[in-house]
């Protein structure tokens, strides 16, 4: 991919996340669950770790880090000004964040930090949005101290693609969204764990441990769980549907979950329900 096309793609992604920033937390409950898992899995951190929350969004990793490691210092970076605005609002509201968190609008492919400064550099479900995946991984490695760890997660399996087409059959059965060129298609190659392994190897990491992690997105009922799923689908749909049609997505998702429970529901214990998400998580040591 040429530098020009990468810049255009990067600008498109940044603009999309700027637009989505205010609603991001409504659809990021599952990424927050994975963030907690990742932080709890990090071993051998020093007593006062200095960590980069890379492509931070609204700060799921930062929040999990500060709860698990109260003496940590965190640098939260994202190319989206909208996301960093929310991070800075969190910093202003929370005294502990003010003492521990820095925030920067920064492209992950060109981190504005010196070599060998971080004990860990964590990118939670961001690598597939970055046009030059290998360059972003190189920057993670460059900014790590010797012995430091890069943690990168990507989706292996989500309910979004089947739910999109099942919901579409209810809302807009004619003129369906084409699979080719859709945002979901861009995730397809990451299903293979070798994609992430190859990216990290090309970036210079020699020690990479991979694991498959599954967990449910939980809610008290189908109405509650349909909301974050619908927010994700609205981002995927973009401008391909009218606003009135996108406004029907949540109710369509709820209908699909109720009528096709055997296909989607993996937890139903009387206290709530869950829809499964599976990720690859890579731990790469410098």
Quick overview:
The protein has 286 residues and is an alpha/beta fold. The chain has helices spanning 3-20, 24-27, 29-41, 60-68, 81-93, 95-100, 133-142, 160-171, 193-202, 222-237, 243-246, 249-259, 261-264; strands at residues 50-54, 73-78, 101-105, 118-124, 144-157, 207-219, 265-268, 273-285.
Q: Helices and strands, in N-to-C order?
A: HHHEHEHHEEHEHHEHHHHEE
User: How much of the polypeptide forms β-strand, as a percent range?
Assistant: 15-25%
Q: How would a crystallographer describe the biggest sheet?
A: 8 strands, mixed
Oligomerization status of the protein chains: single chain
Helix amount: 40-55%
Structural class, from helix and strand content?
Answer: alpha/beta
Our Rg estimate from Cα atoms comes to 19 Å
Poorly predicted runs of 5 or more residues: 1-9, 12-25
Distance between the termini: 27 Å
Average per-residue pLDDT, rounded, comes to: 88
Question: How many DSSP-defined strands?
Answer: 8
Note the overall shape.
Answer: globular
Helical stretch tally: 13
Give the topology:
Blueprint: H1 3-20, H2 24-27, H3 29-41, E1 50-54, H4 60-68, E2 73-78, H5 81-93, H6 95-100, E3 101-105, E4 118-124, H7 133-142, E5 144-157, H8 160-171, H9 193-202, E6 207-219, H10 222-237, H11 243-246, H12 249-259, H13 261-264, E7 265-268, E8 273-285
Parallel strand pairs: 1-2, 1-4, 2-3, 4-5
Antiparallel strand pairs: 5-8, 6-8, 7-8
Helix pairs in contact: 3-4, 8-12, 10-12
Describe the structure in your own words.
The protein has 13 helices and eight strands. The protein is of the alpha/beta class. Helix 8 crosses helix 12 and helix 10 packs across helix 12 (249-259). The longest helix is centred in the N-terminal third of the chain and has 18 residues, at 3-20.
């Amino acid at each position: 991919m040429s530098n020009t096309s990468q810049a255009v793609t990067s600008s498109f992604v940044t603009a999309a996340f700027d637009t989505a920033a205010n609603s991001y937390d409504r659809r990021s409950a599952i990424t927050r669950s994975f963030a907690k898992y990742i932080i709890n899995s990090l071993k051998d951190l020093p007593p006062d770790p200095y960590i980069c929350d890379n492509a931070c969004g609204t700060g799921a990793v930062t929040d999990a880090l500060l709860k698990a490691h109260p003496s940590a210092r965190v640098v939260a970076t994202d190319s989206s000004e909208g996301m960093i605005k929310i991070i800075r609002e969190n910093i202003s509201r929370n005294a502990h964040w003010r003492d521990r968190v820095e925030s920067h609008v920064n492209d992950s492919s060109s981190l504005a930090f010196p070599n060998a400064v971080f004990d860990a550099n964590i990118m939670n479900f961001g690598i597939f949005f970055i046009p030059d995946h290998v360059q972003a991984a190189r920057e993670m490695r460059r900014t790590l101290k010797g012995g430091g760890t890069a943690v990168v997660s990507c989706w292996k399996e989500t309910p979004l693609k089947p739910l999109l087409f099942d919901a579409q059959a209810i809302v807009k059965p004619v003129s369906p969204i084409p699979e080719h060129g859709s945002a979901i298609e861009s995730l397809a190659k990451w299903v293979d764990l070798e994609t992430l392994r190859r990216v990290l190897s090309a970036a210079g990491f020699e020690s990479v441990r991979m694991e498959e992690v599954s967990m449910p997105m939980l809610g008290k009922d189908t109405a509650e769980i349909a909301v974050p799923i619908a927010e994700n689908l609205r981002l995927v749909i973009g401008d391909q549907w009218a606003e009135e049609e996108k406004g029907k997505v949540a109710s369509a998702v709820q209908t699909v979950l109720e009528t096709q429970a055997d296909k989607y529901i993996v937890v139903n214990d009387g206290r709530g329900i869950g829809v499964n998400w599976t990720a690859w998580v890579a731990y790469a040591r410098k």
